[in-house]
Amino acid sequence: MTTLKIDLVSDIACPWCAIGYARLQQALATLPQLQIELEWHAFELNPDKNAAQEPILPALSRKYGRSEDEMRAAQANMMQIAADLELNFSKMQQRYTCNTFDGHRLVKWAATENKATAMKLALFEAYFGEAKDVSDSAILANCAEQAGLDKAKAERILAGNDYSDSVTEDIAQYQQAGISSVPAFIINNRYLISGAQEPAQLAASLQQIAAEMA
Fold it and tell me: What is the distance between the alpha carbons of residues 190 and 169, in angstroms, rounded to a whole number?
């Protein structure tokens, strides 16, 4: 059996990151001969902690220079893709922009408890499925509890600076490596797969990499 290490660079506020992970799971289901070690890494789409939160559609409209109607249509398309993957994106058009640094801190902590993926999925669900503010400590602590983590410990972490250095180093490392969009799948520190590719395409890429590593 071939083992591949996947470093997945993503942001909690990135819908394609949630879709990309779900598609990865579908791809891996067709590759039982592969064993995967997955590690989540931080990326910030909204790095300014002091920026005012605003409704997502006008924010995206301004960012991409497209009309709100165009952005609404693009989001609706993503919602359909998500539904086909059994992801809850039902409130993605009602969400607000927010900084995700503290959420990334909890993912780093969750990794020490072997629950990083559960933490990440709880955050995706809160943000895209429930339009919750995933920069809010109370909401983050609830997400930790849903991921099977100790809520009181999550609250203590959020009240301090634990794992801040780890997140900051992550962000800097992948920026310096030239990662400017997410999701980014880095395989065995050698191969880069960018974006939320279709499961069949992703499976073919992983199979080819595994063959080259053999």
Answer: 20
